[in-house]
Every structure is written in C-alpha cells, then in structure tokens.
Amino acid sequence: MSEQPDEYEIRARVLRILAKRHRLRAAALEASAEMVLTTRSIERFMNLLTEAEARDVAEHPDLAELNVQLDGFYSADPARPREEPTA
User: Fold this and answer.
1) Contacts with 13 (C-beta within 8 Å, 6 or more apart), sequence order
2) Interacting residues of 85 by C-beta distance below 8 A, sequence separation 6+
3) CA–CA separation, 64 and 58 (whole Å)
4) Considering the entire predicted model, what is its pTM?
5) What's the CA gap between 79 and 69, in Å, rounded?
6) Is 50 left (phi over 0), alpha (psi -120 to 50) or beta?
7) Cβ(78)–Cβ(72) under 8 Å?
8) What is the C-alpha to C-alpha distance for residues 8 and 17, in angstroms, rounded to an integer?
9) Distances from the Cα of 53 to the Cαs of 15, 32, 60, 73, in angstroms?
C-alpha cells in the first residue's frame, strides 16, 4: 500500500491547483485586454472609412445626388415627389 501524503504535500497540491486557476484567469484577462484594443482599432478604422466616403461623396456631386435618391427610395417611409409629407 502507498502511504498517505502528509500535510505539506496536500498543501503544495492545493497551491498548485490555485496557481493553475490564477494562470487561467490571467489568460482570460489578457484576451479581454486584447479585445478592448481590437475594438478601439476597429472603431478608428470605421471612423476613417466613414470620413473617406463622405469626402468622396462631397467631391463628386453626382454621387451626392445618387445618395439622396437612394435614401429616398430605401427609407422606411419614402415621400413621393409630388405629395406633401404628412407630419
């Protein structure tokens, strides 16, 4: 028969288990931190993309007119050209 572990071995096992749990939590927190930075980068990219699209539309009047036409066509309640809007 094998002998029972003494109190020091038991305490060492418990501490190793706790250390593994802390490493796992630390890894999860690191992943969360990276996601926060990724979110910031995506927001910056989307802002730059929106600004670039606005510049393109402003530089090309035909695109601005097309944008207005598409907004009217695809809006939830398109107003007909010859009718007054009901508000």
Assistant:
1) 5
2) 79
3) 7
4) 0.53
5) 11
6) alpha
7) yes
8) 14
9) 57, 31, 11, 20
* Residue whose tokens read 């250390």: 19
Token representation of residue 52 = 């670039």
Comparing 30-34, 41-45, 57-61, which segment has the lowest mean pLDDT?
57-61
More confident residue, 58 or 85: 58
Residues making up the chain, counted from first to last: 87
How many angstroms separate the CA atoms of 8 and 10, rounded? 5
Joined tokens for residue 29: 């927190």
Please compute, for residue 73, the number of CA atoms within 13 A of its CA located in the half-sphere on the CB side: 6
pLDDT (0 to 100) of residue 6: 92
Q: Break the chain down into helix, strand, coil percent, rounded to 5.
A: 75, 0, 25
